[in-house]
Design a protein that fits this description.
The protein has helices at 2-23, 29-53, 62-70. The longest helix has 25 residues, at 29-53. It contains three helices and no strands. The chain is mostly helical. The chain has one domain. α1 runs antiparallel to α2 (29-53). 76% of the residues lie in helices and 0% in strands.
Length: 74
Amino acid sequence: MLDEELARIRAHRNNIHRYRRLLRTKLSDLERQFIQRRLAEEQTALKALAADTFPVAFALPKHQLASAMMGAEP
């Protein structure tokens, strides 16, 4: 299951890179609008899939965050 989700994440990332490359080329206004819309859709899909695949996020309390950023022990 994780392999399938990682493959989908890679596909979305590849599409995003492709659309960004296309936006650097000469396009008509209609083509540019279409690609920008597809890029936004791919970014949204990637964000949602990544959140579902990797739902755990760790947050440090503020006092520990400052210590961690300075390399100090709590």
